[in-house]
Write the structure tokens for this entry.
Amino acid sequence: MRLPRFYAKKRGHRRTGSREWGVFGDGLFHGTLLIAGLCFGGLLVSGVAAPEWRINHEFRESRGTVLAKGLARTTVHDPPGTVITSWRPCLRVRYLANGTVRESWSHGPSAENTTDREMALRRLAAWKLGEETTCWYDPSAPQTVVLQRGYSWWLWLLSLLLPGALILIGGSGLVRGLRAWGKSEEHRAASVGLSELLDPLAQPALAAPGYPAVPVWDDLVNSPGTILKYRLPIESPESWTLVGFGLFALLWNAVVVVLAVGAGLDLLGGRIDWWLFALLVPFLGVGIGGVVLFARSLIFATAIGPTQLEISDHPLLPGRRYDVLLAQGGTGTIQSLTLTLELEEQATFRQGTDTRTEHSVVWRQPVAGFHDVSAAPHSRFEARAVVEIPPGSMHSFTSAHNAVRWRLVVRGTPERWPVFSRIFPVVVFPPDAEVPEPPTRPVASRDALRSIEVSR
Amino acid sequence: MTMAADRGATMPRVDVQFDRPHRQHEPRDQLSVRYRIEGCDGERIRAIEHSVLWYTEGKGEEDIGVHFFQRITDRAMMPPALAAGAFSTPLPQSPLSYEGRIVKVRWCVRVRLFFDGSRDFVSEHVFVLGRIPPAGLPASRT
């Protein structure tokens, strides 16, 4: 018998992991999760849930008298070297069980355990010696008696949630692996239905009806233009930079505040931790730098003014010409403002444990260019141009890890600010396509799939 | 007629014939394929799969879209009873074959043979859908 190879050949010169070992590892991982979930769930059910359920459903009611009371102490070495002590009120009760008078120490619910001895004493004080009270005993072990019933809901929730999540993740992974076992790559890709439920992240992007792998465009035509038919949505790289700087400044300064509060409390207590102060100074410097960068980006993003692009029709077809309207708001002078049509390829791949996305502009054509553009708060700059999608061009394409995207890009060089660029994605259909109505519900790209099973 | 073949010393051989010259097809064309299996050397085939699909090549992870899939498990329709087969399907309107810089889209026909035991053999035959020139050519200005 020959074991499968760890590495198998992929297309081109790259090597990738063996599918057999991959399936084995995947199965082992999900099987371990499933077994861990079942064991953990079993322990919680048998140790917590089942005893509570029995007390509430199977124990018989009786009357008892409190004869003595005390605290039960439980000491656990967890982790070794550390001792955790918990306390639970215990009552000695005389009661009638199965026609016999018995005396026994009560077993309280496990939720009664507390590491706070004072709290346990307060609970114990609520019981009076000689007091007559209702109790419940176990008919199969009459020496077991309780004075309180009820459910520890948080324990039940814990026993459902944690093992439930492990069982769900492990079980769905195993089912997915078993469904794929022995099937070819094509068969797996052709199988629809449960696989989408089991592995939603691996599903292809939404596609235009009747045009597999051409992206839907309904979110690009839901905003009417003021002069032309549609106003295109903007995709601004500067906005993401702003969000990134903002998040960094927020998180870093949160750390600085925690350190500063610690140092301040030390100072108030008359102690000076020089190491903490030495750490605080560079942290504070980086924090201030982060805030300055964020503020600068914010001013930059708001000072330039909004850019709008309207188009006479959408989606676009190769060989056709479309009117576009470029509008630039804000104040000040922009030395140069250009509009270009670009075709960009995007590839997402894994490198070690990282997932990376590479972009490459493979085609670029200037559409219009303007110099010394002046905009005022109440009169934006407006210019019209004609854009033509070259005949025979590749259409827009989207799959799970790859994309070919068309876009109109506005680049500006303001007088006193850095260069900015604003991207307006468009969707281009294949040549001579009959553009369908935009979908009103998700349509998967495998609509056109024809699957036939021939068997006798 | 075009022909492609997978050849190997101990491998089976699948000769595939496309119905269009140069394997050049247009969207919505009817793709018809005939194939012949040889060189199984007495190994029993338990299933044959026919598929027409596109896949991506290049820098990104490979994506695949199956347009047509057919699995044959009837012993009377596979070697040694019958060493030839055919299938046909209308081609879709997209995605078109594309030779990009970091993303490529290719169409192919696959005939996969499943032998008794766990061994399988796949024969892949690329064809072109549409007439998209390679990226960057001829009028590219990057």
